[in-house]
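Trying the structure run again after the queue cleared.
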Amino acid sequence: MISAVGVRNVVENQVDFTRSRNLLIAAVILVSGLGFNGTGGLTFAVANAHVTLTGLAIAAIAGVALNAILPGNDFAFGKTASADGSADLGRY
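Done. Tokens:
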């Protein structure tokens, strides 16, 4: 079910896989998700508790991290929030 939603998002948003950035992020997500599912994930100790990250969690973290650090994203920082009115809550 999760993969079906992911594929639908890729198709609806027309992700351009000719850009190496997008292809690399998708490849790392797929390989880490499938690879760590076969090994049972990563288990580590935090204080007195043992935490296990499944393949899905590792793939999600890897995808978010790569999307944030790889160059070429189309975010525009420094614009005011009121410029487009999306953050406008009206008058009180």
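The chain has a mean pLDDT of 82. Worth checking whether this holds up in the mutant runs.
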